[in-house]
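Appendix B, Record 12. Input sequence as logged:
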Amino acid sequence: MFEQRIEQHFIDSADLKYQAAQLLSKPIAAAVQAILASVTSGGKVLACGNGGSAADAQHFAAEFVGRYERERPELAAIALTTDSSILTAIANDYDFNAIFAKQVRALGGAGDVLLAISTSGNSANVLAAIESAHERDMVVVALTGKGGGKIGQLLRETDVHISVPHERTARIQEVHLLALHCICDGVDTQLLGDQEKQQ
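Logged structural output:
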């Protein structure tokens, strides 16, 4: 019983990834180019999201600042989800919806990228962060699902939208992680060449 249910999770996840590969390859490639242009010009990536998406933001920042699969110079990325003093001060003194937007205004500038992650596309604090990024002339790379929600409507032509064609949060998050790994791999390949992956 449970084994069949577990197997079905694997099958559903694999099916979605297979179906989404062609649809998402173009926006993921565009995200690679936007992020590469930023970090090679002295810019940085600011990443945000809630819950599992917060974990994805931190995961991405770790692989950018540390490394993905190959040794390379450090790349600038900050997860806006990690400083409990900043998060609680802003949430307490202002509003929870401002926790990312104020950090974007403090840390972001023209030439930087906001990596905005929301499975629903409707997270109010992520929407506010996107508005702040636009004020700072930053490019936004948004990872969403469920049709893109309000984020899909807020993005500009110069932004990149990676929208997973699914309604279930767990499946969307699984593809988001794959997309982030594709971005890391794409940036590394552009910087280092298409070499055999190190173990």
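The chain has seven helices and five strands.
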